[in-house]
Structures are given as C-alpha cells and as structure tokens.
Amino acid sequence: MDMRAYFLQASDMSLELREAPQPKPGPEQMLVRVRAAGLNRGEFLKHGLTKPGAAKIGGTEGAGEVEGTGERVMGRLPSSFAEYALMDKADAVPVPANMSWEEAAATPLTFMVVYDMLVQQGNLKKDEWLLVTGVSSGVGVAALLAGKALGARVIGTSGSEEKLKRLSPLGLDVALRTRRPDFHDQVMKATGGKGVSLAVNNVGGSVFAECIKCLGYEGRLATVGYLDGVMKAEMDIEALHSKRLKLFGVSNKMRNGAQRGVTVEGFKRDFLPLFASGKLKPVIDRVYDFKDLPQAKDRMQADAHVGKIVVKI
Predict the structure, then answer these.
(1) 178 vs 202: CA distance, rounded Å
(2) Which of 126, 187, 186 is nearest to 151 (CA)?
(3) What is the dotted CATH code of the domain comprising 2-107+282-312?
(4) Gyration radius of the chain over CA positions
(5) Which residues contact 70 (CB under 8 A, 6 or more apart)?
(6) Where are the domains positioned within the chain?
C-alpha cells in the first residue's frame, strides 16, 4: 500500500511530497497512523539531524494510533512527515486523554530533552533558580514550563522583547533581553548574589563562560545547543574547582536505544502525570495542514516562532 510522505533533501533542505510504500514494522516496532508531527530546528540545519545523501522522509517526532490496536501514542518517530511511520516500542509513550494530537506531537523530543536536562542529570529542586538562555526556542520554552512545574524560579534570556513578553504569562520570573554574554550582573541581582543552581545553554560557545559565571555553589551547567555556531569556549577552571560545579551535555546522538529508554521511562514516571493533570502543557506556536508543511518549515527557519510548530496529518 502506498502513502503520501514529504522527502527532505539534505543538500538544500527542500521538501517534496511524494507517494511512498507504507513501511513494515520489525519485531520491536509498531506501525503508527500519524495524526500530527512536531518540527525541530535540528532537522533543518546543515550538519544537523538530517544526513547527507539521497532525499529521505523527514520528521523526527509525532503522535498517532497504533495500527491494529488503536492505542494513542506519542514519541520519537523517525520519518513522521508521512501518513504512516514506524515507532520503536521502547520509544512509545501513551497519550493522556486530555491531550490533543497536536499537543501530543509537540511534546516528545523537547520535553524528553528537558527531562534529561532538569531531572535526570540536572537534579533541579523546588525553589532553586534556573537560568535558560535562548528561552524562546522549543527547548527553552519547554525548560521554562517544566522548571515552573517542578517549583523552580526561572530567569530567561532572549534577543526579542516581543518573545519575552509572550513568555511572561507562562511564569518567567526574570526576563533578560540580550543575545550577548552580558547577563551575569542581572542574574546575580535577581538571585540575591547567590547565582543559579542550574543553567541551560541553548545558545552555544559565545555564552558558555557567562553561564559558568552565573552558577552558584554546586551549580550545574547543561549544554544542549549551539545556535551561535560557536563550538569552543574559555573555561574558568578555578570557578569549576572552588564552586564544585558540574558540567554536562544533553544529546541523543551517541545514545543507544537502551540508554534512550531510561529517559523515556523516567519521563513516563515523572512528567506524564503532570501532562495528564494539565499542570504541564506544551506551547504550540502554530498548527499547519499537511499540505502546508513547506510553509511550516519556512516559519521555523525564519525563527519567528515561540514554542512548537506542528503539522497535522
């Protein structure tokens, strides 16, 4: 049986709608009738998630019904820009009854990354201060929402005054308008001179040293993105040593299925009840129809969005 799918060409990141054979599940996989898919910046970046070579079906996450059982699932879903896609059983997360397909598709990757970052490795506790650089990005908004749900106080940086305004109703405690490494003094003022317990670096090498300066005693620094393309940074080893700091990276790139599975299980245990109760809810920037996926990609590449862009299929 054939289906419609969008193929993504790595050389120029162009999308083309084609007919393709419906995939067949292996022993540890499920065939999912895709109802909605989330867009991620990484899949449209050169040297990002899309491998060079022949065009392949795009998409990395989504939500839909399992063929044969009708079970509602969300999760990591490679090739989700299609009517059907294969999900590894270990990646499947049940969709709570109160979540729409669009909300479910906007949840898996950003909130799994955020779970890994804030809980699994970051050990964020109630009343601690969390600093999120590039807070209006997909991961940034999810970190803000999850940080607030965990009872933390959140400082966010963004180059856009308008985007920061849109985040204040979501509980952003301190909004700092900047794209530069110049936020240390304001962070120290906000935290009464103590510094933050956890800093999330979405931006890259240009703010790495500033993030370390902003950490308090036994502070943690999560490195998750490099929108600035700066891959090297100076490190204050004296601060690392005297403040007992922890630096860690957040990525799925080198992890095997079993390692990812630990994050999925933790997410189901600790975060899924928050979604089911309505305490956590993804922020959706805009929903596009399947036929308008190229426009959705343009919006993401123009960096005009706050929260997640979703396509319904």
Answers:
(1) 14
(2) 126
(3) 3.90.180.10
(4) 19
(5) none
(6) 2-107+282-312, 111-249
Per-residue pLDDT at 48: 54
Q: Each residue of 107-166: pLDDT tens digit?
A: 999 999 999 999 999 999 999 999 999 999 889 999 999 999 999 999 999 999 999 999
Q: Can you give the length of the chain in residues?
A: 313
* Burial of residue 4 (number of CB atoms within 10 Å: 0-12, 13-18, 19+): middle
Q: Which CATH number fits domain 111-249: 3.40.50.300, 3.90.180.10, 3.90.640.10, 3.30.390.50?
A: 3.90.180.10
Name the DSSP letter for residue 118: I
Q: What is the pLDDT of residues 206-235, one digit of tens each?
A: 999 999 999 999 999 999 988 888 999 999
Query: What are the tokens at 200?
Result: 């999330």
Q: Nearest 10 degrees: CA dihedral of 260, 262, 268, 272?
A: -70
Identity at 313, one-letter amino acid code: I
For residue 223, what is the enclosing H or E element?
strand 215-223
Q: Which of 38, 293, 43, 295 is nearest to 142 (CA)?
A: 38
Q: Are 67 and 86 in contact (CB under 8 A)?
A: no
Q: CA-CA distance, 21 to 55, in Å (whole number)?
A: 15
H-only helix segments in the chain: 101-105, 108-115, 138-149, 161-167, 184-190, 208-214, 237-242, 257-270, 272-276, 293-301
Q: How far apart are the first and last CA of the chain?
A: 17
Strand-pairing partners, residue 73, are 64, 94
Question: Helix or strand or coil: residue 103?
Answer: helix
d(C-alpha 222, C-alpha 125), whole Å: 15
Strand 61-66 vs strand 29-38: parallel, antiparallel, or unpaired?
Answer: antiparallel
Asked if the domains 2-107+282-312 and 111-249 are classified in one and the same CATH topology, the answer is yes
Output the DSSP codes for 39-68.
Answer: --GGGGSTTSSSPSSS-EE--SEEEEEETT
Which pTM was predicted? 0.92
